[in-house]
Amino acid sequence: MIENQKGAESFAQEFEEYEKSLITLNTRDVVKGTVIGVSEKGLSVNLGYKSDGFVPASEVTDDPSADITKMYAEGDEVEAFVVRVNDVDGEVTLSMKKLEMIKGAKEVEDAFESKEILTGKVIQAVNGGVIVSCKGVRVFVPASQASDRFLQDLTSLVGTEVNLRIIDIKKMRGRNKIVGSVKNVLNEQKAALAESFWADVREGKTYKGIVKSLTKFGAFADIGGVDGLIHISELSWSKIKHPSEVVNVGDEVEVYIISFDKEKGKISLGFKKAEDNPWKKVENELKIDDVVDCKIVRIVPFGAFAEIYPGVDALIHISQVANKRIAKVEDELTIGQHVQAKVVEINLADQKIGLSIRALLEPEAPAEEAQEAPAVEEAETTEE
Predict the structure, then answer these.
(1) Domains plus CATH for the chain?
(2) 358 vs 61, 323, 363, CA distance in Å?
(3) To the nearest whole percent, how much of the chain has pLDDT over 90?
(4) pTM listed for this prediction
């Protein structure tokens, strides 16, 4: 009996010491704890309180695309804001997102005053702009401030990290509406890059660029704070109808300066490489009297042009199309037809090549000779 009484006293004493060791929680407290469970629904956290805390998935981060099961693991230390303490149900509801927002709000307000550049992640495209999560604070960036160029589809920005500057903070319905500008920062960065570019530019210098837009006459590429034009004739050694046959918006390209005018801000860029010039192949491989396989690509009144290498067309004059006189080239050749022809002229300076199909054909016997042959034979027979 005495032993039972001592045991009960000892247990009561231990329980009292345990309760003393537990923290006291109140709504709006900021607490630290250890993650003891992770699921798609949220995080279970040991707070050193008589009940564990729970952070719903929606209160872990402001990024709706985030996978919290990959962001956190058991044993991680976290800090959270106490949303509700419910001793009846034995649960403590926590929010990491709200704590981040409380801390971030002060930093964002300070950045507005100091004009500091902040980094955030675009988490949503909304009517008239995008929402950027910056230090846990939702910053609205109008469409006109979302980029330094017009964007038809703002959803292309979702998931990307951007640098921005806070340009306005308004009180709306008791809450702050924070407005930011990505364009503002990009323009400043481009201005600094442009100054550096013009100080060091020279003809022939190569640059890495990003294709920004396409037109029917060429492609514009950003080569570091400035845009240059790659004329359609400089995109390929072959004839193309549109720049999209060679490059697309967003492609990284290696270009070189052909010419520039700093005062007008105009830059002409080259893209095709000299070593890829098909006329170099003509110079190294083609000789007079060579027989080549070629494809008819164009027919004109005075002959036909045939492709012998990509980017190199040669002329088959109408007099060299057949071993007879013809009125129309179309009577003998069609576009897309593959033929064999002999090289009869090479003019590297003017980039002209002459071909002849006739040179490979047996000459036809003249009609007059064909008619006279029997008469000669008959005359020889008579004399005998």
Answers:
(1) 33-97 (2.40.50.140), 115-186 (2.40.50.140), 201-276 (2.40.50.140), 278-360 (2.40.50.140)
(2) 78, 5, 8
(3) 58
(4) 0.53
